[in-house]
Design brief:
- There is one protein chain.
- The chain is mainly alpha-helical.
- Helix content is 47%, strand content 5%.
- The protein has one domain: Arc Repressor Mutant, subunit A (Orthogonal Bundle).
């Protein structure tokens, strides 16, 4: 994509809208489904397997959407308890507990 242009996903993202409205302009139903799952307020972060299980999509489809949309999706600074990647929307700020988790990981690795 050329510099200064926005994808159809970025144009469809509307701050403050419920997930069903926020992504209504996204034409790809798989992308819309994954992004709506990430926007679910019940979760701060989601795993690929959790999104796949909830949506009925394959893990490879979920991973493809997450990787395709770095302007909308970010991976947590620290992995989940089982070492799996955690994902959320870019619009969500980095929380203090995420920063604390990163510090713990850093300190643990620097001591050993």
């Amino acid at each position: 994509m050329a510099a200064g242009t926005t994808s159809h996903l970025e144009r469809g993202l509307v701050q403050g809208e419920p997930p069903s409205k926020k992504f209504q302009h996204i034409s790809d139903p798989i992308e819309r489904t994954v992004l709506e799952a990430l926007a679910d307020p019940k979760w701060d972060f989601r795993t690929i397997s959790g999104i796949a299980k909830e949506t009925g999509l394959s893990e490879s489809d979920v991973k493809r959407v997450l990787e395709k949309n770095p302007a909308l999706v970010r991976q947590s600074l620290v992995p989940g308890r089982q070492g799996r990647g955690l994902f959320t929307l870019q619009e969500r700020p980095i929380e203090p507990r995420e920063k604390l988790g990163l510090l713990q990981v850093f300190l643990t690795k620097s001591i050993t």
